[in-house]
Design a protein that fits this description.
With 299 residues, the chain is an alpha/beta fold. It has 12 helices and 13 strands. It has a 5-stranded mixed beta sheet, sandwiched between helices. It has a 4-stranded mixed beta sheet with strand order 8-12-7-11, with helices on one face. Strands 1-2 form a two-stranded antiparallel ribbon. α2 packs across α3.
C-alpha cells in the first residue's frame, strides 16, 4: 500500500476538498485525483463521492469505514521507519482532553521538552472516549481525560478535582459570589462539561426554553468571548487562562455543579517497550500535581 496515497486520502478527509488538499500538500489537483484513483483502483471500490458543482467532497460508506484503517496504516508505517532508524530513545504518546491540554498541562509538557534526553513526548488533543479507545488499541500510551468509561482493558484513576466558576467582563458588575438564578441564560456561551454538569445546568435553565451559543474548545471560547454581556461557566483553570488575556471577573457559584475530575488512564497490559516511558511520565505527572504551579491553577 502506497503511503503517499494514504496520507493524501486522510488529508482529503480532513479538508473535505480536493483543491484544499492540493494546496496543503503543495501538489497539483490532478496529482491528488491520481493518487485517490490509485487507492480506489487498488481496493476496487469508490472511497469518495465526486459531485459536479459541489465544492466539498463526501465519503462513501466504504470511504468512511476506511478512515480508521488508513490512520492505523500510517501509524504502523511511522513505527516501522523508527524501527529501521533504530531510534530507541524513550518516547511516549499522550492523549489529553483539549481544555486540559490548553489550561492545565502546558507547564508539564514544557519541562519534559526541555530535557529531551529524559523522554520525548507526542501530545494529541481528543475527546475522552477517543483517548480511551486509542489507549485500548495501543495507539496511545497514556491518557488524561475528563469523562471515564468502563473498560476492562483500561486502568482509570482520578488525578485531581477542580471547581467551576462564572466568567464575565468586569463591567457586567457580577459579584464575587453569584447564584445561578441571577444569570441571564440568553447571554450564556455554553461549554459542555459532561453529563453531571448538564444535569445541573438543566436544573437551573430549562433547555426547552433556551438555546445558548455553544463551543467545544477552550481556545475557541477565549477567541469569541468579546462582549460585555457574555458570561460562561468554566473550570477555575480555564478561568485563570482567560484572566491572563482578558479583563474579566471570576465569580464563585452558590449551589455549584459537581467538581470536574481529571483522570489518568493507561492500558492494563501496556506494551513492554512502553513500560519505562509510562513510568517516567507518571512520576513527573505526580510531581507536577503536587507542585505550586498546579495549586495556583486550580486552587
Amino acid at each position: 500500500m502506497n503511503l503517499e496515497n494514504l496520507e493524501t486520502f486522510l488529508t482529503i478527509v480532513e479538508t473535505k476538498s480536493l483543491s484544499k488538499t492540493a494546496n496543503k500538500l503543495y501538489l497539483s489537483q490532478s496529482t491528488i485525483s491520481h493518487r485517490l484513483k490509485q487507492l480506489e483502483k487498488e481496493f476496487e471500490t469508490k472511497l469518495v463521492h465526486r459531485n459536479r458543482g459541489e465544492r466539498k467532497i463526501t465519503l462513501t460508506l466504504e470511504g468512511e469505514a476506511f478512515v480508521e484503517i488508513a490512520k492505523k496504516w500510517v501509524l504502523l508505517w511511522e513505527e516501522t521507519i523508527n524501527w529501521q532508524k533504530r531510534d530507541f530513545r524513550l518516547k511516549i504518546k499522550i492523549g489529553c482532553s483539549d481544555s486540559l491540554n490548553t489550561c492545565v498541562f502546558p507547564s508539564l509538557y514544557k519541562s519534559l521538552m526541555k530535557n529531551k534526553s529524559l523522554l520525548t513526548i507526542k501530545v494529541r488533543s481528543h475527546w475522552s472516549k477517543v483517548i480511551i479507545k486509542s489507549v485500548e488499541n495501543y495507539e496511545l500510551d497514556f491518557g488524561l481525560v475528563l469523562m471515564p468509561m468502563n473498560n476492562n482493558n483500561i486502568i482509570i484513576e482520578p488525578l485531581f478535582n477542580e471547581r467551576f466558576v462564572v466568567v464575565s467582563f468586569k463591567e457586567k458588575g457580577l459579584g464575587n459570589i453569584i447564584h445561578p438564578k441571577e444569570l441571564n441564560p440568553e447571554n450564556e456561551i455554553y461549554f459542555y462539561h459532561g453529563p453531571e454538569y448538564k444535569i445541573w445546568h438543566n436544573y437551573w435553565w430549562d433547555p426547552s426554553k433556551i438555546n445558548p451559543s455553544t463551543v467545544d474548545t477552550a481556545s475557541l471560547l477565549l477567541s469569541i468571548f468579546d462582549s460585555p454581556d457574555y458570561w460562561t461557566i468554566v473550570p477555575i483553570s480555564m478561568a485563570k487562562l482567560f484572566e491572563q488575556n482578558i479583563d474579566i471577573q471570576i465569580s464563585e457559584l452558590m449551589d455549584p455543579p459537581p467538581k470536574r475530575t481529571c483522570y489518568k488512564i493507561k492500558h492494563r497490559l501496556p506494551k513492554q517497550a512502553s513500560l519505562r516511558s509510562i513510568s517516567i511520565f507518571e512520576e513527573k505527572l505526580h510531581d507536577y500535581i503536587k507542585s505550586d504551579t498546579i495549586k495556583k491553577l486550580i486552587g
